[in-house]
Amino acid sequence: VILPNPVMYSFTESIMLGLAAALANGLGGAVIVRKDWDGRYLRYFIALGSGFMLSTSLLEMLPESIRLSGERAPLLLLAGYFIVHFFEHTVTTHFHFGEETHREEYARPHRVYSVLFGLIIHTFFDGIAIASGFLVSEWLGWVIFLAVILHKVPEGFTASSVMLAGGRSKKVAWLASAALGAATIVGVLTVTMFTRSLAAALPLSAGVTLYVAASDLIPEVNREPGVRVALFVFLGVGLFLGLQQLFH
């Protein structure tokens, strides 16, 4: 009996799930282009995803990063955190997850594409996170995939919304969300081709995951009045802890 190579198996899984995450970006773009959506569902997705992502980065990705990289892990995590901050909120104009209604902010083309570029950097690290997780263990790969997929639809939605706010066509808006999906796949392929980068890739992507959850998604939850949406953050944490107890 010839047993499958576990490394090749992890590559196959990470590539397939990277494709699934990319399709979720496209779905988010299609939702805003078609305009057949209910904004409440997007807000709940963002809240659920923020709790799950925070738990994944702090309770799974960080401990594994320390095991792999030792004392370098916290520094690499911090670097990942500020890489996203630099590209999403320093190089680019300010933006937020969800539908963009401030069209005057995107009158200049470079502002529209700077936002897209910032999101592409972040989605590239989504792919790195998925592939790195599967190289460590099947459990970590799957839990990172779930953390990624929970914010993929809002992510694609945001990219397309910014394009529409900048006066671009519906086709260009949807292509913007597709570009995010392509960047995710490139991130997966990068790690699968350079497996020796795992010791740096996992803590860097942990920092990116932490940034997206704490600095991109949680502020969107805090904008919402009442407690219902905020409770979904705790539901996301509870979902993670439940899966951890059942499968890890």
Features:
mainly alpha; 248 residues
Number of helices: 8
N-to-C span: 28 Å
Average predicted confidence as pLDDT: 83
Order of helices and strands: HHHHHHHH
Explain this structure.
This protein is mainly α and 248 residues long. Helix content is 82%, strand content 0%. It has 8 helices and no strands. α1 runs antiparallel to α4. The longest helix has 31 residues. It is globular, with a radius of gyration of 17 Å. It starts with 5 loop residues before the first helix and ends with a helix. The relative contact order is 0.22. The N terminus is likely disordered.
Structure summarized in a few sentences:
The chain is mainly α and about 250 residues long. The chain is built from eight helices and no strands.
What's the structural blueprint in terms of helices and strands?
Layout: H1 6-34, H2 39-69, H3 72-89, H4 109-136, H5 138-165, H6 170-193, H7 198-223, H8 228-247
